[in-house]
Each structure stands twice: as structure tokens, then as C-alpha cells.
Amino acid sequence: MNEVIHIDDSADPRVAPYVSIRERDLTGRPDGRFIVEGKVTLSILAERSRFTIDSVFIGETRLEPLADILAGLPGDVPIYVAPQTIMDAVAGFPIHRGVLACARKGEPIGLENLLSGETLLVLNDISNHDNVGAAFRNAAAFGVDGIILDERSCDPLYRKAIRVSAGSALWLPFHHGETGADHIAALKDAGYDIWAMTPGASATPIGDMPVSGKVAVLLGAEGPGLPDGLIGAAHPVRIPMAPGFDSINVATAGAVALSRIFEARQTA
Amino acid sequence: MNEVIHIDDSADPRVAPYVSIRERDLTGRPDGRFIVEGKVTLSILAERSRFTIDSVFIGETRLEPLADILAGLPGDVPIYVAPQTIMDAVAGFPIHRGVLACARKGEPIGLENLLSGETLLVLNDISNHDNVGAAFRNAAAFGVDGIILDERSCDPLYRKAIRVSAGSALWLPFHHGETGADHIAALKDAGYDIWAMTPGASATPIGDMPVSGKVAVLLGAEGPGLPDGLIGAAHPVRIPMAPGFDSINVATAGAVALSRIFEARQTA
User: Fold this and answer.
1) If both were cysteines, with which of A59, A120, A200, B2 could A216 make a disulfide (CB 3.0 to 4.6 Å apart)?
2) What does the alpha-carbon distance between residue A175 and residue A25 come to, in Å, rounded to a whole number?
3) Residues B27 and B98 in one domain
4) What is the DSSP pairing of strand B79-82 with strand B146-149?
5) DSSP code at position B95
6) Is the CB of residue A249 less than 8 Å away from at least one CB of chain B?
7) Under an 8 A CB cutoff, do B143 and A242 touch?
């Protein structure tokens, strides 16, 4: 087991990265650190993540139940342990699960490094952490090779997004930056068929779409959907729905599209 | 416009149905009343719901912006209006949206009344309001004729479930009661092909499933999934997924399955 350090003062500088988590994570941390919460995501961080772990911070009653996961950590990662009250005081709100970890984002993945993937998911203006997390979970389930998010989409490494992603935000390669127009230009250059998901009646029904070669599924904000400029620059694709009810959740629309592509590639 | 009644005392008996909403709604109301929250769901309650509306309770600043929706209410529904502080005091927590309504569940729909529908969704042990709401939204999007929930599933007419359902819980017919085994027996008697959704490797891949006649899609709790007894009594169907990642959200799995059935019926 790694070094276990007992923390009995909420002002201990060793747990400074865990102070006021909520506020700091919403505004973003200039030092490139991010926080992971919960047992399942900690186990993925230990086993499968592409990020460097700084430390783990857990409630004292969790040391025993988490022993297996903690044994899988790199040897130099300190395990800070504190009573629940100290942990809550540090974080600034109750950490019911009693499991936190801090990791470093490191060098971001360049857009060009994702453009060899067979299937990509491209998120445009998705500013809700639940939706970004759910989109990652669905992308992982259907074998997507990478995710591209425009600069207005929110951070997949926000605590809640990681949790909703079922931890996939920790290993599924993604690039976050630029605009949807930039992404479409780069994807076209790289030979992708870009499916712009839209409820528009003139779009091609998804069942009629051939799947061959590289495909990128482009999703826009719930409510407004993708801007016309992006739809027009890509291949508009719609999921047939009942009359008078033309919208499902954006991550769900992604799942419906990606499941078709996954199956088409399996049977090809 | 209906009668507008100004409330200036949080103890006014006319707004008694709105007192301590959160606690009362989680335990269930013996009088069969339920609360609807938010503008979109109020408009569906007014236009398309199958329930009788008791009253509407809105913040005083909302009277003007909601005028169009309020004009669509049956003439005998009183509109209670109060300052935000009174509204929050009545409800017991901040009603940011400033829009509430109270309606009555009335006589529940009998299971037998749903068994003529072409496509049904059957929920087993879904105890999370977000998942029940999302399952309704997806069912509405893909033209499901009715939803059956076992007795352990949660109430689709809980405030949050209604909101997540995009209001479809207010008009999509559902039956809530009995066990999954009871449902399977009744569905078989009525001639349904029952698709038990499961990640099990021996289940039929969804792309190989013919859609003809009456189909019921059966979904189990996230995590454990459907119990073996129910899977064995139905037709096990799986959504192909990437190796090592065998689970998507239960409502999302419903969307993937229902979208296939909807399209197959369209092209048939």
C-alpha cells in the first residue's frame, strides 16, 4: 500500500488542491489539476486513465473498503486520510462518498491526433455537464475513437461530467477547443463523412445512411440544436420521430446514431 | 383570463396543496393530487394533459409572461398569485421558476386498457425519477402507445419525472402496479413479442430482431439489469456494444430499441 498520511487539520497545505472544490472547478483551475469523485471513477483513474494522479483523499472509514483499488495506484501517489468532518471542511460541502482524487490534465491532445479514428463524436456548444458526461458514456459504449468539443462546450474533466461518463472521460481521447466550423473543415480535409444530427424534415433519415470509411457524428445544443451554418456544411441526418415530438436528449440522439454506426461496422 | 387570487399569507388554506412540496411528493399524497413545475410542463398540462387541474400557483412577476398559457386553462381553475417570498415559504424551498400547478391523478388506467397498443414500454424496478422521466420522453419521441411500470418503479407523476419527461408523463397513458412477472403473463396473453433488454452475450442482437405485430420493450434497473426470471420468460435482446463496456443508461437503451421499432414500422 502507498504511503497513508493522516490529515487532522483542514488547513493542512497537503490537501490544498481539495479546498473549495465546487467553486474552483466551475471556474476552472489555471494549474491544470482536476478532481475525481467516487469509487468507480477512482478505480478507472487508477487502472485505465491517461492522466497523472497527484494524490488521493479519502474518509478514514474508506481505507479498508477501497484497499483493492488503492493497491493499484502508482507507488508515488500519497493517500491522504481524514475524518469525514475534516474532509467536508476542506471541500466546502459534504463529500458523502468520501472518495476524492486529484490528477493533472497534462498536455492536451491535438485535433490532428484524433483524425485517424474511424468514428468520432463532435460536440458543439454542449454546456451542460450531464450531457457531456452522458455523450462520453455513449461514445465509449459504441466504440468511438475520439471526441472533439468546441470551445463553448464544457470541460469533460469536471467532476460531475467524469462521473456521468462512467469514467470514460478519463481514458477516451478528446480534443477541446476552436469552433465547429474549424472542426468541420479539419474533418473534411481528413476525409470524414460528417453526420450533422438535426430534426429538420429535409435531413436524411438515419436508416438510409450508408456507413463506410470515416464517420463523424456532430451534435448541437439541446433546444436550439446545431446552427444552420454547420448543418449546411455537413450531411444533415435525422432520427425519425413521432409527429409533434421532435426532440430527444442530445446525448441520447448521439447514442441512437452511434449504435447504428457500431453495428454497421460490425456486420460489414 | 381565469379568476386571479392574490395570496399574501403563506398559511392561506387555498394554497395548502403547495405546502412542503418536496417532502409530501416524495412520500406520495394519499389524496391523489400531484404537483407540476415549470412553464413547459404547465403548458402541456393546460393543452394536452389527461388530468384534471385543481389550481395554478405562480409568482406575481409571471402573470404577464404566462398569459398565453393561462388563457388555455379550463375556466374554473383558479390562478393563485403571490410574491416570490410567500411562494418559497409555502413550498418550503426556493421555486426559482415561479410556476406551479396542482392536478388530480383520477382513476388509474387499467393494464388491460393498454394491451391493444402496437408498441409498449415496460419498466421494471426503475426507482430513479430522472430515468423514469427520460424513459417517458424517449417513448413519446418514438411513438410508444403506453407505458407499464411495476410496483417498485417510481411515480411518473413526481414533479421531477414530469419535467424530465418533457411533459409526456401528463399525456402518455401508463399503468403503474403489480410485478414484472404479472406484466409478462398479461403481455403474452395479449400476443406481444416481449423484448427483454439485457447485455447478455446470448441475447439476440437488436439488428436481427424482426418487428411485426405487437412489441413490448422491457427495461430493468440500471446496474443489476432485469432479473434472470424475467429475461428467461421473454425474448432476450441486446444492443451490441464495444468490448469491456457493456452498459448504457437504461432510458438510453430504451431509446435505441424504440427508435429501431419506430423506423421498422414506418418502412413496413
Assistant:
1) A120
2) 19
3) yes
4) unpaired
5) -
6) yes
7) yes
Per-residue pLDDT tens over the stretch A175-216 = 999 999 999 999 999 999 999 999 988 999 999 999 999 999
Of all residues in chain A, the one with the smallest CA distance to B263 is A240
- For the residues of B100-150, what is the DSSP string, one character each? EEEEE--SPPPGGGGTT-SEEEEE-S---HHHHHHHHHHHHHTT--EEEE-
Q: What angle do CA A83, A86, A87 make, to 5 degrees?
A: 85
Strand ranges inside chain B, DSSP E: 4-6, 33-37, 52-59, 79-82, 99-104, 119-123, 146-149, 174-176, 193-197, 204-205, 215-219, 235-238
Whose grid coordinates read 393543452? B47
- Which residue, A104, A129, A148, sits at the end of a domain? A104
CB pairs under 8 A between A and B: 77
Classify B56 in phi/psi space as left (phi over 0), alpha (psi -120 to 50) or beta: beta
Question: Average pLDDT over chain B, rounded to whole?
Answer: 94
Cross-strand pairs, B82: B59
- State yes or no: ipTM above 0.90: yes
Q: Which residue has the cell 481539495?
A: A18
Question: pLDDT above 90 covers what percent of chain B?
Answer: 88
**What pLDDT, in 10s, does the model give residues A35-55?**
999 999 999 999 999 999 999
Whether residues B15 and B41 fall in one domain: yes
Nearest to B97, CA basis, from B106, B88, B110, B109: B88
Identify whether the C-beta of residue A34 lies closer than 8 Å to the C-beta of residue A103. Answer: yes
Same domain, residue pair A245 and A160: yes
pLDDT tens digit sequence for B186-213: 999 999 999 999 998 899 999 999 999 9
Nine cell digits for residue A203:
435531413
Q: Are residues B50 and B120 in the same domain?
A: no
Instruction: Determine contact: A135 vs chain B, CB below 8 A.
Output: no
d(CA B14, CA B19): 10
d(CA A151, CA A175): 10
- Chain A residues whose CB is inside 8 A of the B263 CB are 205-207, 240
| Domain at B261, CATH number | 3.40.1280.10
- Sheet order of strands, B193-197 included: B174-176, B146-149, B119-123, B215-219, B193-197, B235-238, B204-205
* Residues B137 and B145 sit within 8 Å (Cβ to Cβ): no
Q: By residue range, what is the domain housing residue B211?
A: 111-267
pLDDT digits (tens, 9 = 90+) for A121-158: 999 999 999 999 999 999 999 999 999 999 999 999 99
Q: Do B22 and B99 fall into the same domain?
A: yes
Q: How many CB atoms lie within 10 A of CB B104?
A: 14
Chain A CB contacts of B166 below 8 Å: 245, 247
